[in-house]
Every structure is written in structure tokens, then in C-alpha cells.
Amino acid sequence: MKDLKAIKGTFYIHNLISEGEHEHQDFKFAITDAAKIARSISAFANNDGGRLLVGVKDNGRIAGIRNEEDIFVVEQAAQMYCRPPQDVKVSAFTVDGGAVVLRVDIAKASKRPVYSREPDGTMRAYYRVKDENIAAHPVMVKAWRRMAADEGLVLSLSEAEAALLNYLDEWSMTTVEDYMRGAHISRAAAEEIIVRLCAAGVLEFIYTGSEFRIMRSDNQ
């Protein structure tokens, strides 16, 4: 990392910045906290990957990185604050005559969840939604773990599972809590059904702006 050489990239970086922050891009001005960077890495890895532009303010103004210490903090976030550790690709570009901007590429995780270590030492998985890093729903995380263990295959549907799918065909989406109450089953039973169907690719979680809901997968 210390031998990273910056290449000229004024037009390229300005073009990326013109896209704004979105599901696959986040701006980072000052790199002072590896834990915060780890949240972004977790969120992108648990979605479809993405990139950080380091040295860019939230409003798109280029400030440049302070020094090579920023590169070290990014690497520390990926290797020491993410579980499992993530490999990130860092490229450096000189912009507007001298400021250096880092492009940090984060790949989609081959197995989810990817956790980030919180300041209190706990581990939490994040998910990228539009321009935000959202704490993943606990049932969503359970489904990822089930998929990672290759236990998601559904060969036949139980009566309760079929009823949930029929409900979603009619009403499009629901929450874990509403499903639990509507089906008159325990939370544990509701979560197990949703985890099983999510891990099999039958259901998926979407974030509506205030909460996670479950719906039929687009792949179905």
C-alpha cells in the first residue's frame, strides 16, 4: 500500500462524483475511524459490491486525502474491523492539479454476512440501500448464514409456507411481525419459515425507507 502511485484522473473522478452517492458509491471526506469505514465495506459486500471515493465531501467537493495514513486506515477497516476480513482494491488519482482521491473497490461477498466491528466490540452486518448503510434485519442475517451453510434448498412447502406465499401473491409484501401475528404462530416459527424461504431464493428482503419487508423474489 505504501508504494501506491497516483495517476492522473481529473476527468474520471469528476465523472464518478457527478453520479452522486448511490447504492454502489459512497463519498468519504476524512478517514479517521476504521469502524465507520468497515460499516461501508460490510454494506457493499452484503449487497452487490461498490466503491468508496476517499477525499470527497458529501456535497461532492474534492478535498483530497491527508496522507498515506488514510490508505492504512482503509486497509485496517477491511482486514481488522470486518469479519470475515475483506480484500479491497485501492487506486489513487491526482485531481485538479494535486489533490489525491482514493477509489476503494469492494467486491460482493462470496458468502454473507460480512460483519463490521462496532465501537463497543459487538459485530453487526450492514446492507447498502440507495445512499445509506442500513443495519441488516436479524432474520435477513439468519437467512444469509443458512445460505452460506448450503442449507437453503426447499423441496416441498409446508402448509404455513404455502399460506405465506399465497398471502404475498395477493398483498405483495409484509413484515416479520405482521406475518407472525396474522398466521398466529410464534416468532421462532415465523422466522424459521422466512429464513428457509429466503435461503432458497423464494423470498427476499427489501427496505422501504423505514423498515425491512419481505416479498417474493424477483427470481421467482
From TrEMBL:
Pfam family, one: SLFN_AlbA_2
Protein name according to UniProt: ATP-binding protein
PANTHER family: GLPR-RELATED TRANSCRIPTIONAL REPRESSOR, SCHLAFEN ALBA-2 DOMAIN-CONTAINING PROTEIN
Keyword field contains Protein transport: no
Source taxon at top rank: Bacteria
Record domain Schlafen AlbA-2: where: 21-135
GO function terms (MF aspect): ATP binding
Protein's organism: Heminiphilus faecis
Keywords: ATP-binding, Nucleotide-binding
